[in-house]
Fold this sequence. Notes:
By secondary structure, the chain is α+β, with helices and mostly antiparallel strands. Strands 1, 28, 29, 30, 31, 32, 33, 34, 35 and 36 form a ten-stranded mixed β-sheet that branches. It has a seven-stranded antiparallel β-sheet with strand order 9-20-21-22-27-24-25, with no helix packed on it. A six-stranded mixed β-sheet has the order 2-4-5-6-7-3, with no helix packed on it.
Amino acid sequence: xxxxxLTFLIATALTxxxxxxxxxxxxxxxxxxxxxxxxxxxxxxxxxxxxYSDGKGEYRQVRWLNASEATExxxxxxxxxxxxxxxxxxxxxxxxxxxxxGYPVSAQVRVVxxxxxxxxxxxxxxxxxxxQVRLExxxxxTSNCQLDIDRLISxxxxxxxxxxxxxxxxxxxxxxxxxxxDSPTTKLKGHGSGHYMSALAFAFASCxxxxxxxxxxSNIKTMVNELRxxxxxTFVWDDRLGRYWEARDFAPEEExxxxxxxxxxxxxxxxxxxxxxxxxxxxxPAQHCALIEMYRAYNxxxxxxxxxxxxxxxxxxxxxxxxYIDDKEVAAKALLTAKDMGLWVWNRLHYRTFVKSDGTQQxxxxxxxxxxxxxxxxxxxxxxxxxxxxxxxxxxTGTHEEKARLAEAANYFDSPAFFDPLARNIDAIRTRHANQxxxxxxxxxxxxxxxxxxxxxxxxxxxxxxxxxxxxYAMGGVGNGEMFRQPYSQITSMCMNVTSWGGRDLHxxxxxxxxCCAYNLAKLTKDLxxxxxxxxxxxxxxxxxxxxxxxGSLNPTRYATVYQYAVGLDASKPWGNETPQSTCCGGTGxxxxxxxxxAAYFVTNPAAEGNxxxxxxxxALYLPTTAYWKDMxxxxxxxxxxxxxxxxxxxQQSPSxxxxxxxxxxxxxxxxxxxxxEGFDVKLNGRSIARHFQPSSYVxxxxxQWSEDDVVEVIMPFTKHIDxxxxxxxxxxxxxxxxxxxxxxxxxxxxxxxxxxxxxxxIKSWDEATVDVAPDLSNITAKPMADxxxxxxxxxxxxxxTASGSPEAEAEKLKTLAFxxxxxxxxxxxxxxxxxxxxxxxxSTASVPNxxxxxxxxxxxxxxxxxxxxxxxxxxDALTTKVPEYAPWAKNGYQRMEALYDDCRKHMDAPEGKYxxxxxxxxxxxxxxxxxxxxxxxxxxxEDMDELMQLLEKAKELPSDNAKANRxxxxxxxxxxxxxxxxxxxxMIERATRQLKEVITEKHKEHQHK
Length: 1010
Ligand SMILES: [Zn+2]
């Protein structure tokens, strides 16, 4: 398709290295000196301001060498580092060839008394809500929003109610069966209906068409009325107790111990909804929530999927409806329904659960209901944003006592195993399931508004910073499959992600960065920004994830979204997930595109101290919008394209606020994006308001009387820069027998143009993705973004020539690559490039500490990780009773790592000069890959599917009209995909294998009869 080509062009001669003498080099880097309260790991900046020899400057990512668990634990050990101690942490600016690891930097850390502080629990600022901000114009944002609204309207509301009627014993005639992950045979039922309700609420808030708004309103009303009707069936008076039958009365301990979650049991449970306990509302019976108290595993046919995950979606849906519906009665009913379910959760967890964090796992699980164990279970313990919804409920409704209970219930979802280290700034993210944990953090932050305990704020703040430095990709997403891998390993992790089949690596599998993670990270960022709205790092990130991954995750021509975003080499967006119930990402996908404007503006919160006198508005995103600021009675109008390099802002009196004082007096703060390193300007009535604008800050127009004649212009030419990954690309799996697996280690990064990740098409291998880049990017020429938007998107506006026209480059046949903004891309996109950067003339081994000519720091870090894993596994091996699913590491990956360990140790301990830098890097690279591809013991590995794959090949030879065989093949194919992604389970493999064997045997018998 022509439209996709020629927007960002690279012409590169692959054999020519840029000349060192004419290159831009790092002149200086800001110094880092931090204080850390004893008992915590230091908060080191994930980026540093770098000044270059040509006078320019920008923020660059840093990789700190303290990321191993052992190093962090030592830093946070107050015995080793009491107040008064000082130490240095080494690090490197990535994407620089001054040393093999980058440009060396160091941080001076001073240990002090005290604790990490937190801001006031009453946020300084709040967003202008979605229904007060209207997206304008004809652009990708408005067309995506329209697509989403139309899709939501097209879905039958009665289908969303099928499961509730079924679970509460009501007739289901006239209600189409739900499908996707809400289908009658999935135990996540209700998650989709919850997302559907949230999406309806946001769509209602964003929709401008009165007819469509009527349909949305009517569907919202139907949902709320029917859900309340189901819930009321649980209001059962008990004479013996002298009160209503409650959550705590449900499933006494003896019954709980016998309980199972099979489909036969499910059918039995649903006949007895009057036993669920007062207020229970969910599309699955209450037994599933209770089974978690018995530590029942995920996707085991006898047990559960993730019961509280779906409860959360439904609570959130009702709360979002209560927030945005204009019918007061419906809003009140939605809130009441959510509150009654919230109090059911409080009741159950208050009376029936506890926390015990010490002892062995066996000891911790001796009694049912230990929340330390419940929420630390893989997927079964996935609770979404339960804490967030319960906290919001406590803010919105209830008597004094009810509010206290809802707030208390929010913190029943604390995961001590995850939160405690995070509160001390220790990285507890590594190897965890990404989307299970991000919303827990969002919940912790929301609960801080009620509990005013800095612990929760610090969990959220530390988590967010860690993600920025150690885990995020250029588009803002995180995770490989559904998992966080090791810190600072995004590039290795991306390159090693492959589709395997029959013991062979077939092709790169760019399905990383789950949509749900982007959705939840955006929410966390928005919520953190409320507490620190002057810190532009938050909205810089929000812009990154919104403009790239979120906008790009909806097909612009027909409604389809993505589960995993496609990031990497030759990646095509895997469109699908066409309804809120289809998958988790179908759910967040349905919400994403009807709320783009949710964080465009922040305004001072009148409830916060001192704010009444000094109102202010933060223009956080440059989006074409009309915003109503009710408190001030003004309309803020922003005229621009999307994405915008220029925006014009005007203030008007709101027609609906005739009593408001006008002209209004307030401060306006405008974000200077991190990428706005050249040509940025803000003019008030034609005059620049400052001589210098610091990237990644807010520039302030001090408090003044605004009149309708005032014009604010923001000029922000997009600049070229590279978002370097933290690690080099040096290995890739062999896609063909004997194919290439080793590459010269090169820094790898994504080309950015302003906020946009640029992608190229037509690249098939990492060799083709190797490009020569001048460090000042002078071989890239760019035109304004507006040209791309206005000229049918087919003009070349971004071009890169190697070595700035050097004779060598011109003598070579230049290779031209076509680039376009990734949000606008679809098929065969490459985002990351191996960058052939010159070595600065100043580079010398003297910059390596201790004058050693060979830097082994990376190998040392990796050996520490390997050692701790070997220790864990050996301790488990020594146990007398072993439950295989609790093994720290799965067998094959562990063996791969163990096999490399001795050789790495030998390289580490060898005398100086025995091994070259290249040899050291090579063994370190291999060990890094082995570490990164290990899976926890509860998860199957690709090797565990050998039998399944052989059976699948056989089953495919069966006649295509065999319905049972087709079902078995369909399921098995899904299992192969899930296991490859990291979300499959051993139980699923067993079931798929059994089903395939059955159909193959049946066929065989049939054959014998004939
Ligand atoms: Zn998802």
